[in-house]
Every structure is written in structure tokens, then in C-alpha cells.
Amino acid sequence: MFAPGPLAAGSAVNDALTGLADDELLIGHVLTSVAGWGPELEINIALSSMGQDEIGHARRLYALVAGADIERMVYERPAIEFRASPLARTCPVEWELLLARQFLYESAADARAAVLAHSDVGELATLVTEMQHEERYHLDFWLTWLRTTAGRSADTRDRVQRALDQMWPLAAASFLPGRAAAVEEGLGLPDGALARARDMWLSQTHAACEELGLRLRDGNPDPQLDRLEEMLGEMRSVYQTAPGRW
Amino acid sequence: MPGDDVRAGIRRALAAVEDPELPVSIVDLGMVRGITLSAGAAVVELVPTFLACPAQWLVESDVKQAVTRVPAVSQCDVVWLDGGWSGADVTETGRRALAGVGLAVPAADGTVLCPFCGSHEVGETSPFGSAVCRTAAYCQGCRTPFEVLKVKRTLLRPAQVP
Question: How far is A224 from chain B (nearest CA, A)?
Fold first, then answer.
């Protein structure tokens, strides 16, 4: 379907890495789109810088799964072929939703990267390690602003709590790829390594929120929050004025 | 032309390629990781300072142009490696050139000195600077803002062995 990358198309590993790339692309798209929302001017620079990082990471991950066919993966692939996680398919439309989404996304990505960095697929291990170092700046940023916003007033804490109530059910369903055992086998990871990383992430994330007087409450994911097609439409609006000729 | 002379010519050509955003050569910035040569075809391995560096494609174009001007080189390909760059890769010449434009490079132990006055009284004002590879800082000694070439953030906990 795509020009062959180093990993077999259609395999569990290929699907999982495509999902990671799709996540980084969509997260980067939103961050660059919302640069301007920050409660301090410097924050807007941070948002665009982080967005640029994420899009750069997506590019590298797409190269692993699709070789040189990166632009097609982004601009021409049907939405149904995207493997993005439920959390990355959201398009947060207010600051607290963005905070909640980003904190949950970055903390999960960090926990997952700690496992993937031990893959025996050398290219992936190197890339994930580099990404994790870069994204550490992001996680620090989102945790700082989650703390700052939740601590500003009772009203802002309530707003953050409502945002977490929307985002947490999606995040809880986003950590593991669909075929975790096959992914572990394909990447040379011990059985159950991803599930153990998820457990650790769950306990650390609950603890971080409790410290701020916040709770991660179970609930049903809201399907209305899936904005993948809308985001792809935005992303591709210029490209589609002259498809294939950019 | 003997192969060693060609390689030396390629190294000289690369030393003349500057980073598009900084007045320092890509060699002094520590971006060149390998040169191979086979029957007039050169392959140059480069590492970006940050994965999303937007200048990579311009660097690649400049490298190809410079290397194919070396006599006996008919072709040049560039391979980008995924990471591995750190501030420790910047040469002394590179550090001086960067300091000249107000950009500090942290020492191996993370110490940052003001590029203008050399003071230790400096602090990070934002982890996000004017480019993905820079942080913003301020010197209390000469009361001047400056930027720092971003190094890899130390992980708060060691990577888990699964």
C-alpha cells in the first residue's frame, strides 16, 4: 500500500508505529494551531516550539514505517487508515482541555518510550530515546501549567477537573496498541512489558493528580470528541487545492 | 586523485558549510558523523541538533553542493541519523563562534556561562527559545538576555528496563 519502509506493512509493529506517528502529527497540528492561547506571551512560543517538535517526530516515525513516502502518509492517506489513539484524535478547544489532554498524552508517551527504547529494532530504540529526551521538556511544561492552572482558584481547579473528566476515559484507552503481545514480540520486548509500563503510568498519573486535588474518574469515552476528519481537512486544505503538485 | 586526498577535500568542503541559522560550520557544530567514498560517490552522515530542526533540508542541499565540487567526486548523498547529538560535540572553535552571537553551549557538566561577560550568575528564563534547539536565559552579571543551545533534558527517573 505504501512504499516499503524498514518494517513490514500491515504487521502489528507497523500499525503500532503508524499510530505513534499519527499521534505525534495530530498533537503537533493542534499545538501549532493554538499558539496564541497562552496566559503569558512566552507560552505561545513554547506551544509552537513543542508543535514543531511533534511534527518532526511524526516525520521520523513515518520514515520508519513508510520509507520515503512521508508526504503521502500525511496528505493523501484515507482517514480510515489512520491509527491515531483516541486521545490524539481530540481537538481541545479551551486551555484546560488542552492542559488535561497534553499532560495525559505526554506522561503516557514518556512511560511507553521507556519501554520502546529497549527494542531490538535499533533504529526505533535510537529514535525513541532521542524523542524522549526532547519531550521531557514538554512533560515538564504541561505538569507545571497543570499545577499552576489548578492552583490559581477554586474555579480554575473545577475547570481542570471537568477537562480531566472528558480526557481521562480516552487516555485510559490510548496507552496500549491493539495487539500489544504481537508488538512486544516484533520489537524484541519481554512479554507484558507494555502492560507493566501502563500500570506504572496509571499509578504515577493518579498520584500526580491527587497532589493537586484532582481525580482521574472513570467514565465512558465521548465519541463526539473524535475530530480526526476535521483536523485532516484543516491540515490538507491548501494541499488539496492542487493535489500532488506541491 | 588518491582516495585520501579526496577525503581530505571533502572534509575541507564540509568545514566550509555553515549552519543556515548560525555563523558556525556544521563540522564545528558536531553534526558530521561519517564520510564514505566509493568510486567517486560520497555519502555524508549527519546528525541534527534537534529532530525537528527545520534547517536540515538546507544543510543537506549545501552539503551536496559543496561536496560535489570536490575534484573526483561525482555524487554525494546525505544520510540523517536519528539523534545522538549533544552540546559536547561542539568544538572549541564552534563554542567561540556561537558565544560571539550570544549563544552559549553548556559544558559537559551542564554549566552555562554568560556568552557576553562570562558570569556564572545565569538562569533559564524559558525552556523554549527562538528555535527548537535553543532555550532562553538571562545573565544577572551583565543584565543581558541570551540563548543556550538546548541539550538533552536529563530524565527525571532512569529509563525502565522492562
Answer: 32
